[in-house]
Design a protein that fits this description.
The protein has 416 residues and is of the alpha+beta class. It contains 15 helices and 10 strands.
């Protein structure tokens, strides 16, 4: 009794049993459509957010936030440069040298190409997370002069080797011998295996000690470059440019956003496209409310006429039917948010269960960058999706409510 009259009538109409069961059926269908649309939109965006987060973390577990290189391919005096970089900008947390080169690996008659990176284990742990991904052995086995190697798990499987086995590494740099020019070859012992979860790295990357890499690739006292770890990886571009300006000499400074720009730009584009496509599902479900309210207005012509004769203004009649449409929308959106949040938070349980029941692997490691379906639920996305669905629902109620407000009492009651 304390509610505004249009609100009270609208809520009463919503609770009342329909004389026309078809109207109730359309209302339920509209509500179910909103539930499914909002659930799908929240779940898909959460999965794509999780995919982007996992991809970024796994890439940065192997790559660096930023890299300093010399234009001639060999960075000399890197010890002093490393100290200057760390001291010049507080946003640079650590720097580590590396030597990179391509090589052929051979073992037990199996051959595979790989990117071989020479690292200083103690320094590398400050800029990357390789040690966290070791499944057998450790980076501590990489000691200078021992010629030990750490392989990605897929690369080790391709070569058929385990920890303790030996492989032959062939570098593209040639050696001159009495027999002529021959490729440089060296036997390495496998001291560890890592698994990042990205096929690109697990299949094509190997680590050796920095000194062994310099001897193998004939870089002398120089290194390929310095890998930097920054305080905020999302500011890698501006920080990299500031570091480049602070250095004396000509250096090339790149960051992870440049190295993987196309990949993350494609993910962002896919998120936008998926949001638009799934928003259309929500829009279709929301505008089903139009047909529900149009039929309801026709069914309630006499009631509207009586209310008008009792003094209810057209704007109040319009508000009555807006309330009904909004109630249907709010219930559907609320159930959709509950379903979407629940599914997004438990996607790591639901997907493996479906895979076991169907015998299907959704994300094959040799096809996709990662082999599991992650989820990153963000409150901002939930609010944005809920707001969009509510706005569409509100827009869908305007035309039927306007038609109801245009009802003429005399014509509606002529044959009553």
């Amino acid at each position: 009794m304390f509610k505004p009259l249009p609100l009270a009538i609208g809520l009463r109409y919503t609770r009342a049993k329909r004389r026309n069961h078809f109207i109730s059926f359309i209302s339920i269908v509209s509500m179910i459509g909103l539930v499914l649309g909002v659930t799908a939109l929240i779940t898909v965006l959460s999965v794509m957010n999780g995919f982007e987060r996992e991809l970024r973390e796994r890439i940065l577990g192997m790559a660096s936030h930023a890299t300093i290189q010399s234009f001639d391919g060999s960075l000399r005096g890197w010890e002093g440069l490393s100290e200057r970089v760390e001291a010049s900008d507080p946003r640079v947390l650590a720097a580590a040298p590396y030597v990179a080169g391509e090589a052929m690996l051979s073992a037990f008659g199996n051959i595979s190409g790989a990117l071989v990176r020479g690292i200083e284990p103690s320094a590398e742990e400050r800029v990357a997370q390789i040690a966290e991904h070791m499944v057998r052995g450790s980076l501590d086995g990489l000691e200078p002069g021992t010629f030990q190697i750490v392989l990605g798990i897929e690369l080790a499987a391709q070569l058929g080797v385990r920890v303790g086995d030996s492989i032959v590494l062939m570098a593209p740099q040639a050696s001159v011998s009495p027999a002529g020019v021959v490729p440089r070859m060296r036997r390495f012992g496998v001291t560890g295996v890592f698994e990042v979860g990205m096929y690109e790295y697990d299949r094509g990357t190997a680590f050796i000690h920095l000194d062994d890499a310099r001897a193998l690739f004939q870089t002398g006292e120089g290194v390929t470059g310095l890998r930097l770890r920054l305080e905020d990886l999302m500011q890698a571009g501006p920080v990299g440019r500031d570091v480049a300006r602070s250095l004396e000499g000509v250096f090339r400074v790149t960051d992870w956003t440049q190295q993987h720009a196309n990949l993350f730009r494609a993910i962002q584009m896919e998120k936008v496209v998926m949001f638009i496509i799934l928003s259309l599902i929500v829009a279709v479900a929301a505008f089903n409310i139009v047909s529900t309210l149009v039929m309801l207005v026709t069914d309630k012509q006499s009631d509207i006429a009586i209310l008008r004769t009792l003094g209810l203004k057209p704007s109040a009649v319009m508000l009555v039917f807006i309330v009904q449409g909004v109630v249907i929308g709010v219930v559907g959106i609320t159930l959709g948010v509950v379903g979407g949040v629940s599914l997004a938070l438990n996607i790591d349980v639901v997907v493996p269960l479906i895979e076991r029941l169907t015998g299907t692997e959704f994300l094959s490691a040799d096809v996709y960058y990662i082999n599991e379906l992650p989820s990153d639920l963000r409150v901002r996305d939930v609010v944005r999706i809920s707001g969009l669905a509510f706005l569409l629902t509100l827009l869908a109620t305007l035309f039927p409510a306007w038609r109801a407000s245009r009802t003429r009492p005399a014509e509606a009651l002529r044959y009553e």
